[in-house]
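## retry 2 of 3
previous attempt timed out at serialization; input unchanged, resubmitting
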Amino acid sequence: MSLMRNEIWMFKAGVCSHLLLAVLAFLLPALASMALGCPSRCECLAQHRAVVCHRRRLRAIPDGIPIETQVLDLRKNQLSDLHPHTFATFSQLEELQLSENILGIIEPGSFHNLPALRILNLRNNRLKLLPVGVFTGLGNLTHLDISDNRLVILLDFTFKDLGNLRHLELGDNDLVYISNLAFVGLHSLEDLKLERCNLTVFPSEALNQLQKLTMLGLNYLNISDLKPFGFRGLQQLRILEIDNWPLLKLLHPLSFDHLNLTSLAITNTNITAVPGTTLQHLGHLRRLNLSFNAIELIETGAFEKLIWLQELTIAGAALKTIEPLAFRGLAHLRVLNLTRNLLRSLEEQAFQTTETLEILRIDSNPLTCDCRLLWVINKRRWLDFGGKDPTCQAPIYLHGLTFAQIPDVLPRNYFTCRQPRMLGPRLVTLMAIEEQMALLPCRVEGDPFPNIAWISPWKQRIVGKQGSGKMIILKNGTLQLHFAQLADSGVYTCIAANAVGNATSFVRLNVKRFAPQPLYINETHGHASGDVNYNIH
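## retry succeeded, writing output
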């Protein structure tokens, strides 16, 4: 038995020795090649089959690079041109780094016989033109970076051979035109960055070739208009970023039609209002960023079609007013970021619900800590302020206190408000002359100072500078009619409202035809009703 066991052991040992020799026979030539064939000015990492010739002042591809090389790093050298078959002997190459050279010419065929290449980096060179066929042979390429070059135009079929490309970076070029068929052949492209170019017209025809695109970054562009249906071919697009378009002032209601976005950022543009009619087509949106735009007001129902929205950011804008039910329809809102604005308050009635709210950023606003913010104080134990505790600016006795410093049991004068109260008689009668200005007073007090609205005799509601064009509300609440007409006669209602109530007063306006003889002010007091009559001219 002992003899048999020894024979079995010797047999197994022999088999293992043969296997080991076979493995070594396979590996040693490759390792020896990497060790013995490494160019003198490069570093070879045999374990990773990588050759690193980074920052070696090379003016040509060095001799002696092992044919088994999978990663070739030639960054930060002085390579100026590439000719056909330059890399033809490196058929196993998977990653080629050529960024930060002085490449001005890449001839078609330069990347011939690189079937395994996945990553090609040509960033920060001097390329002005990519000739058709320059990428022939790179059918398995997945990542291409040609940003920070001097490209002026992208010709038709420039990328026709890159059927497996997933990520393309085109930013920081001098592009003035992208041909309509430039992106033909990019059947698999998922991520495109097109930024810091000289484009002045949105290249919708070219982009609509990219039917598999899911992420699109369009930043630092001098484009002033997004025309209707500009993204009609990008039905797979989920993430769109538009940043630093200083000429963009308005969005067409159909600019984003046909899109199924889940994330949208429109930041650092010249828009001055929430583009509600444009956003209403984006029913699948989860994240929206409108930061660093000069938006002063969020109107009632501005986002009501975005029923699945979870994150809303409007930071660093000029927000002063958020109307009641501004966030109507946002039943799933979890994150609201309104930091660095001009808000004095954020009322609970702006929301459809605050029960889903998890993160609220209202820091870096001149907050008046009165009853309008009491709901935030009551929820502060489970609301996340993003590490930035809000701070009271007013009233004076709370100035500088953070919400964390507010006591749990509030003193009687903390976070209080006073209901509006009209000053003077409830009914005033005024006489005005046709075609002249009429001023209808509304004197009121309250804390916070009430919002003023007027109701015309024909039931038109006038808020702020809205109305028929000839009526505006002045800062002191007075309704100004630029040119009174006979048809403007009637009773006007002033409504003053704040967070704790409202008050009303009335003005009866009589407009008289213009008479050549002068009219003089004649003030008479009414009877027990407290009415006041004025003639004005």
